[in-house]
Design goal:
Blueprint: E1 6-11, E2 29-40, E3 49-53, E4 59-64, E5 68-79, H1 82-91, E6 93-97, E7 102-108, E8 130-141, E9 145-149, E10 156-159, E11 165-168, E12 174-179, E13 183-186, E14 192-196, E15 204-207, E16 213-217, E17 223-236, E18 240-243, E19 253-256, E20 262-269, E21 272-276
Parallel strand pairs: 3-7, 3-9, 4-8, 4-10, 9-11, 10-12, 11-13, 12-14, 13-15, 14-16, 15-20, 16-21, 17-20, 17-21
Antiparallel strand pairs: 1-17, 2-5, 5-8, 6-7, 17-19, 18-19
């Protein structure tokens, strides 16, 4: 079937922008290990959330029909010498907490921010001496929600999760596939790709600075769409009606179907595509 794309908005500008960070320094001493843990939510937890706070490394999460969180963490330590490698092993630790409404998986390090938010500029002061990377593969109950953070060294991938999502990256791609909740997916240097198994019932936002945004909704979508792209086009194949802009707003808005939750899309350098799932 031929897909007809409606071009909604195109704007071009010449702007200076953020550049991806340079690759981490290579260290001659290296050690690897794999950590496996089974974690559980508290009995009778009303709202279950998987909270993963990483710094360097990927986070891959898949929903399953079981009740436990199955974590595999592949740890790689690189250092200038053996002494600094041992220091890295002492100072960078993997902390977990379970048996409550929230299952926490946090990478703890000397520069960790208050509130466990590692994505806002709080970094390890020892990064000239060693590098520690955790790459996570996690299976979780599909009806739970996710709160995921990482900064460098890999993508965030989420598949087959029905709960809400709050996903933040800095230098990497975000891909959410076959999801059913509502929430936010934000990165700085990377693309945002999303496909919904059922349309979100609440407001959502999808942001990047240097990367394209592509979101696939179910054909029966009813929502209001807001979008902003400085260097790229905005396209959709949904029948859409333009909503007259308020005098205080310059962001175009359109209504799909009967309207409903607000879907916000914003990038500086990249196209935005809002498409019907096949």
């Amino acid at each position: 079937m031929t897909r007809h794309i409606l071009a909604l908005f195109v704007s071009f500008a010449t702007l200076s922008c953020f550049a991806p960070l340079a690759p981490a320094q290579r260290f001659p001493v290296e050690d690897k290990q794999t950590v496996r843990r089974t974690l559980e939510f508290g009995t009778g937890a009303s709202r279950r959330v998987l909270d993963v706070q990483n710094v360097n490394g990927a986070i891959h999460v898949t929903g399953h029909d079981g009740s436990t969180v199955e974590m595999v963490a592949n740890e790689t330590i690189r250092a200038r010498d053996q002494e600094r490698l041992e220091a890295a092993r002492r100072e960078i630790t993997l902390e977990t907490r379970d048996r409550s409404d929230t299952v926490e998986i946090h990478v703890d390090h000397p520069g960790r921010c208050a509130g466990n938010n590692n994505s806002n500029g709080c970094f390890n002061s020892r990064e000239d001496q060693y590098s520690v990377q955790f790459d996570f593969e996690i299976r979780m109950p599909k009806n739970a929600s996710v709160r995921l953070r990482t900064v460098n060294g890999g993508d965030i991938l989420v598949q087959d999760v029905a709960g809400d999502f709050d996903v933040h990256h800095v230098n990497g791609r975000i891909e959410l596939s076959d999801i059913s909740g509502s929430g936010r997916a934000n990165t700085v240097n990377g693309a945002v790709q999303v496909s919904f198994a059922s349309n979100p019932k609440s407001d959502c936002s999808f942001h990047s600075v240097n990367g394209a945004i592509e979101v696939h909704f179910r054909p029966e979508l009813s929502a209001e769409l807001r979008f902003k792209s400085m260097n790229g086009g905005v396209f959709t194949d949904f029948p859409a009606a333009v909503i007259p802009a308020a005098t205080s707003s310059r962001e175009p808005r359109v209504k799909v179907g009967n309207g409903g939750p607000e879907m916000q899309f914003e990038t500086l350098n990249g196209a935005i595509r809002i498409l019907q799932a096949k």
